[in-house]
Amino acid sequence: MQEAFIQSAITIAGREAVLTGDAMTAYCEDWRGRYSGAALAVLFPANTLQVSEIVKLCVANQVAIVPQGGNTSLCGASVPVSQGRQVVLNLSRMNKIRVVDAINYTMTVEAGCKLAALYEAAEQANRLFPLGLTAIAAHCEIGGNLSTNAGGIGVLRYGSARDLVLGLEVVLPDGRIWNGLRSLRKDNTGYDLKQLFLGAEGTLGIITVAVLKLFPRPQSTATACVAVASPEVAVRLLATIRASCGQALSGFEIISRNCLDLVFKHIEDAHEPFKKRYEWYLLIKIDDVQQSSPAEAIRSALLNFGGDVLTFGIACDARQAELWWHLRKNISEAQKLEGVSIKHDISVPVSRVAEFIAEASRVLRNRFVDLRIVAFGHMGDGNIHFNVSLLDAAVNDAFIGQHEIEVNRLVYQVVQKLGGSISAEHGLGQLKRETIRDYKDPLELEMMRTIKHAFDPGNLMNPGKVV
Fold this sequence. Notes:
Keywords: FAD, Flavoprotein. One of its GO terms (molecular function) is FAD binding. The protein has helices spanning 2-13, 48-61, 115-124, 142-147, 155-158, 194-197, 231-245, 257-266, 294-305, 318-329, 331-338, 353-367, 396-417, 442-455, and strands at residues 18-19, 41-43, 64-68, 86-90, 97-101, 106-110, 127-128, 165-171, 177-180, 206-213, 215-216, 220-228, 249-256, 280-288, 309-315, 345-347, 371-378, 383-390. By secondary structure, it is an alpha+beta fold. It folds into 4 domains: 2-90, Uridine Diphospho-n-acetylenolpyruvylglucosamine Reductase, domain 2 (2-Layer Sandwich), CATH 3.30.43; 97-216, Uridine Diphospho-n-acetylenolpyruvylglucosamine Reductase, domain 3, CATH 3.30.465.10; 220-332, Alpha-Beta Plaits (2-Layer Sandwich), CATH 3.30.70; 340-417, 2-Layer Sandwich (Alpha-Beta Plaits), CATH 3.30.70.2740. Strands 15-12-14-13-17-18-16 form a 7-stranded antiparallel sheet, sandwiched between helices. A 5-stranded antiparallel sheet has the order 5-6-10-8-9. Helix 1 (2-13) runs antiparallel to helix 2, helix 7 (231-245) packs antiparallel against helix 12 and helix 12 (353-367) packs across helix 13. The two termini are 29 Å apart.
């Protein structure tokens, strides 16, 4: 049966579009190297019709489907699980930018388009596509970005991935094609069906094409690097700058000293932003579509804030700003080179970010000694990456193997107490599929399972993920 299935897949997509055996390895292992599984084949359809035919073939043979783009998921969502008959359906060949409508401020793109290519296409039309994942933009693909509701550094101003979509084309779990490729800002004709697939991690269908929102391209930009005494100060400063700069504020990132120490240890061309070392840093970005002076607006806000701002620098020059952003973008890579850590991608109300960092750090240090806590992230939207390991790398693997569940429980209890979420932008995938049951309302989980069963009663669409 397996050989007949492979031959049928070759008939649909072509021999060059079907991988088996050792050639599949890279597509069956996740970005972090934490998850791997087994597949009958990795398939590379060239268009939506081929996706539809492959899904119908899988349904007829009761073979599960794992949708995949650039395979940059951080929660094991884009690779097969360890058991069951599955194929990986990789959409990387579907990489055409179909239409850029500069007047309507939209572009229609296929799911396999690299995010970096969308940045370039928008720029050529003097427009901006603001999904701020610049560190992995050359690798990730828009279908995966939408399926995981990716976040990034621009959420404060532009929203997450689901906020950037006007229409979708989706292949449903029975192989039918839903054409919802509308480029309308207003459409009040019932349920907003596209939202079901955004953030569903491929469990309800396969996004093949999307209509994305574009924005005016900023004509003037300023980035400030600011040292502050504490996260509490950062929370107050954020409120002040939002009041003075309004919608021009497009990024507000917090970085702890531990982050920078790892970056300086492992990343080339990384340098201290100031002569003196500080414990907490902010990167603040102001954009304006007018030829204005955003540097003066942010300078005034910082000077008027008072002594809790320890020092700051402001760059309107793109090269200087990039040196600061180079530090932020390479924190995750530096952590990876240092070794394994227990990672948390959480969100709380912006007003409670400092409280979360302080409380989560306190409860962990009361329980364990010699911890390294690496805290950084998108403070402007309440999303903090809070990662835990031991200072001594030689015993870190053993610590994680023994205490990861307890560390997660202590951190997530603080998140729950503060009204937050245990997954802000990375999703659930395999990593948090079981854990979410302890932190989400049972009625919400029941509603999610009901939707899943309605769309995919055979549970063939990315099984073992989310629900």
